[in-house]
Amino acid sequence: MTILELLTRKLSHQLILPESLIEAVINHQWKTAKEATHTCNTIEFTNLGTLMIRPRKVEQEIKKQTSLISFLKKKLQENLDEKEISKYTTSLKNAQFTLDFLLSKKENI
After folding, report:
1. According to a count of CB atoms within 10 Å of the terminal CB, is the N or C end of the chain lower?
2. Could you write out the DSSP letters of every residue in the chain?
3. Across the strands, what pairs with 53?
4. First vs last C-alpha separation in the chain
5. Residue 50: Cβ within 10 Å count
6. Inter-CA distances, 76 with 11, 94, 98, 100, Å
7. Structure confidence by residue, pLDDT tens digits, 36-69
């Protein structure tokens, strides 16, 4: 059982509300928080606290993504079958997207 399922089930019993409603609220909060990270450096959750994006963590993740991109580019130059090429290409696109996001956050911190 995942944390989401456990939380949904407990809240559903405590509040006497359908699990689907509880899950929808949790998913909405998660989606909103995730979208807010694109424009804000801090996110405040009522009664839960504040999430802050730390410059040091951003720098570490930039280094990690940069080395991952380098590794994936080298792998794509090897003799691979179509399935592996597709897998590494998708991973490369995701790593590049993450790196672009982190670089934009670095500028705003």
Report:
1. N
2. --HHHHHHHHHHHHHT--HHHHHHHHHHHHHHHHHHTTT-SEEEETTTEEEE--HHHHHHHHHHHHHHHHHHHHHHTS---HHHHHHHHHHHHHHHHHHHHHHHHHHH-
3. none
4. 37
5. 8
6. 47, 15, 19, 20
7. 877 788 888 888 788 888 889 999 999 999 999 9
pLDDT of 104 > 80? The answer is: yes
Six token digits for residue 36: 């807010």
- By residue count, the chain amounts to 109
Say which residue the tokens 């399935």 belong to: 83
Q: Give, in order, the Cα–Cα distances in Å from 55 to each of 34, 47, 61.
A: 18, 25, 10
Determine contact, residues 92/75, Cβ cutoff 8 Å.
no
Q: 14 burial class (0-12, 13-18, 19+ CB within 10 angstroms)?
A: exposed
Mean of pLDDT values over 64-76: 96
**How far is the C-alpha of 39 from the C-alpha of 92, rounded, in Å?**
24
